[in-house]
Write a structure and sequence with these properties.
about 675 residues, alpha+beta, six-stranded antiparallel sheet, about 15% strand, globular
């Protein structure tokens, strides 16, 4: 796992290039504290900060082929590198290291962009062809690793985190009100967007090519949520799913360092832990968050699974004070407004994991999207069939949708019946499954002076996606989840960004392409979807505590506005003051002020979900405004960044003194 950064321009001032790329790398040093390096050529500079996981001794970057024509900066892991290396060796490709980075480079040389479809991994990469003077950037198919780019002063800048752009003289951040509104409404940025003007992401499954001073973005692979139905009975399907997951975990245990597991106590992480214990040669170490606020605490379930599977378990107890006190730092790493505080405990947990000597962890992310684990999917099926059901059946199915939410209780039966009747037919083309959720998200857009049409970017995305209209209502719901909440929040803010803030790499067995295809082939084939993840439960029922398999799903949550009301951290002043609110150009200070006033004077139990989310959005936006837009009180750079182990320096500029070195 690493971080990459670079710039491409026909008029980079020669004397500034080494300092510029070094500064960009320093700003993301937390992603790869083990070593760093950069490559310079006429018109291009690119570099890597490395977290050494595979081939720690000889996997330094940037890396070239033996002829020195191709150079690569690679962020991530290629889980099937062993198999690809064997295939490439048979084809005559030469290897000098055992690293997966070299496999990626040789695969590119052998197959070109077609190699990306062969990769089973989590990655973002930059490859330079010094003969043709082209540069390509690419990102994995599920968006597990970030890759941002922007144009500034005639140069194309790219980096694993946007904060690297602050190292470029004259670069300034500014919010884009329309993109910010989209984030608020959708709970996450779209795969190619950010909330800042002029800054984009290479989309998941995307390829950006820079050639002759211009760049183009294409898709090398479209997201697929459909697959041919599994050909076999339920017993065969259960065995198929189990074996596919076993193989996925096996691939993700490939590492030259110890691999731990995030154990939430739910079904998904428990399955991953079970499979890891089966295949590890040592006692598996598991890590989890406990909450002092027992409303959110799942420590009893975590301990039950850890004891049952015999793991060496460690937990971090998180209080309201911990969340409030670390919120601003976690937002600095997230770089995007958040609607929940649940990423902050994960930020704190990754620090605990790092301090325990672990660099790599497995997690259960992606299981709910692949195997229809969210109540959103049951809700979509209910609304889709609403007008064919009796009232008794409507009431019965409503009562099972959200057992964890009080406002879905029997006391609100009449309200819920009316609400679901109202949303039983599609209002917004292509977004039927998410219309109720987006109604709540739209409330937060009132924080902005000019939100425009917050859903238009999403409508455009589904309009432009081949094959989307042919998907079922549930498959469309899956597709949207993959494209928004999963890639933009769960894998990013709450996942990769929180982990890499403390130099911890996360791996997601449920997001193996084979697992996603397997899930698509068995979903709703042997059950009606009323029992979420029924196939998964049957596949692992004999291996896990009965309670873990049978208990109602308990989504991972953390306390929201309550922590700021109770603890009053310094960052709260950014929304309590009208003058501070007016410093956020795109925010409507009148509405924002009324919301904050209501939150601060209202008992927690009387604050609605949409109000709570809007408040967290506002506070995180205000923090980003101060840190990035105004450039005030930004989180200090990692002190260790000044001591970067700059191991590889390569300078191929015309007239430059040869500078290839291992320092």
């Amino acid at each position: 796992m690493c971080g990459i950064a670079g710039c491409v321009s026909s008029r980079l001032p020669d004397e500034d290039i080494p300092g510029r790329i070094t500064s960009m790398l320093s700003s993301i040093h937390h992603r790869g504290p083990d070593e760093a390096g950069y490559y310079l050529d006429d018109g291009v500079a690119m570099g890597t900060v490395r977290l050494a996981i595979i081939d720690q001794a000889s996997g330094a970057q940037p890396m070239s082929d033996p002829a020195g024509r191709y150079w690569i900066c690679f962020n991530g892991e290629l889980y099937n590198h062993v198999e690809l290396r064997e295939e490439l060796t048979r084809l005559g490709r030469p290897f000098r290291t055992k690293s997966d980075t070299e496999v990626v480079l040789q695969a590119w040389i052998q197959w070109g962009p077609a190699c990306l479809e062969r990769f089973n991994g989590a990655f973002a990469l930059a490859i330079r062809d010094s003969a043709t003077k082209t540069l390509v950037l690419a990102r994995d198919r599920y968006g597990k690793r970030p890759l941002f780019y922007t144009e500034h002063d005639g140069a194309l800048l790219f980096a694993s985190e946007m904060k690297a752009f602050t190292a470029v003289p004259g670069f300034r951040f500014a919010f884009d009100p329309r993109e910010l509104a989209s984030v608020y409404a959708l709970w996450a940025p779209l795969p190619d967007r950010t909330p800042f003007q002029g800054i984009r992401q290479v989309p998941m499954g995307g390829l950006l090519t820079v050639e002759n001073g211009r760049h183009t973005v294409t898709q090398y692979e479209e997201l697929r949520v459909d697959a041919p139905a599994f050909d076999g009975d339920e017993r065969d399907a259960v065995a198929f799913v189990r074996e596919t997951l076993r193989r996925s975990v096996e691939l993700r245990l490939r590492s030259d360092v110890e691999v731990g597991v995030y154990l939430s106590g739910g079904l998904d992480s428990s399955i991953v832990t079970k499979l890891a214990t089966e295949q590890s040669s040592h006692q598996v170490r598991t890590f989890s968050v406990e909450f002092q606020d027992k409303t959110y605490d799942e420590s009893s379930s975590q301990q039950l699974v850890a004891s049952h599977l015999g793991t060496l378990h460690s937990s971090l107890n998180v209080s309201h004070r911990d969340i409030a006190g670390s919120f601003a730092d976690a937002v600095w790493h997230a770089e995007v407004p958040a609607f929940r505080t649940s990423f902050v405990p994960m930020y704190l947990l990754s620090r605990h994991v790092r301090d325990s000597g672990i660099k790599t962890v497995l997690s259960g992310e992606g299981a709910d999207e692949a195997f229809l684990g969210y109540s959103l999917f049951r809700e979509t099926m209910l609304r889709d069939s609403w007008n064919t059901l009796s009232e008794d059946e409507r009431v019965r199915r409503l009562s099972t949708l959200h057992p964890e939410l009080a406002h879905f209780g029997s006391a609100r039966k009449a309200h819920l019946l009316g609400l679901f009747q109202q949303f039983s037919t599609e209002r917004t083309p292509g977004l039927f499954s998410h219309e109720l959720r987006y109604q709540n998200g739209m409330f937060a857009t009132r924080l902005l002076k000019d939100p425009g049409d917050p859903l238009e970017p999403m409508r455009e995305l589904v309009r432009m996606t081949p094959g989307y209209d042919a998907l079922s209502a549930v498959q469309k719901a899956q597709w949207i989840e993959y494209k928004t909440l999963l890639s933009g929040y769960l894998l990013a803010t709450q996942g990769e960004r929180s982990s890499l803030a403390h130099s911890v790499e996360n791996r997601c067995p449920f997001l193996d392409p084979a697992v996603v295809r397997a899930a698509a082939s068995v979903n709703l084939r042997y059950d009606d979807g009323s029992d979420e993840k029924a196939i998964l439960k049957k596949a692992f029922a004999a291996d896990l505590p009965q309670w873990t398999v049978s208990r109602p799903k308990q989504p991972y949550r953390a306390p929201g506005s309550a922590v700021f009301k109770d603890e009053r951290p310094d960052c709260l002043e950014l929304v309590l003051s009208e003058n501070e609110l007016r410093r956020i150009d795109c925010v409507n200070p009148a509405f924002a002020g009324r919301l904050v006033s209501k939150i601060m004077r209202t008992p927690v139990e009387e604050i609605s979900t949409k109000e709570d989310q809007a408040f967290v959005y506002l506070l995180s936006t205000a923090i980003l405004n101060r840190q990035y837009v105004l450039g005030e009180h930004a989180r200090p750079m990692d002190a260790a960044a000044g001591r970067m182990n700059l191991r590889t320096v390569v300078d191929h500029r015309l007239g430059a003194v040869p500078a290839e070195a291992a320092r």
